[in-house]
Write a structure and sequence with these properties.
With 174 residues, this protein is α+β, with helices and mostly antiparallel strands. Helix content is 41%, strand content 13%. The protein has a domain of 105 residues: OmpA-like domain (60s Ribosomal Protein L30, Chain: A, 2-Layer Sandwich).
Amino acid sequence: MNKLLLSAILLGLLSACASTSDKGQGAASVEDKSLGQQAAGASTQGAQQQGMAMDPLKDPSNILSKRSVYFDYDSYSVKNEYKPMVEAHAQYLKQNAKAKAFIQGNADERGSREYNLALGQKRAESVRKVMNVLGVSDNQIETVSFGEEKPKAEGRDEDSWAQNRRADIVYQGE
């Protein structure tokens, strides 16, 4: 009797966890958009169609929730893998003329304090330049360098250093 009751409960739980597919709901036309533009617009369009006002900057499924551009050792060139994210933030800024972004450049602890401040500034400026090329106004972007003063990881190994070689995009009011 207990096995039958347990089986019925498990069957009920499994059927309650089943999900259905809603294909086509919230779909955006992507023919003429870059990957960054698709990601910036698709989430807000889907939320508007459903009657919700979800902030795309806080939606974890939206590329705009990603805010860090990572760099190679002693480099300030934006890697191709981060360009779609930077494009999405540029598109967001163009669509929201009152929005303002702060790009915070960072470096790992290797090198002098002065060198790391300069490298952090170059990293922030390189992200700003990509956004400017994509049409974002200079008055919507400010850059600052924290050098090695604001580490994301505290370790003294390659993984920690890699996490600290970055530029973070932070929006005013956050």
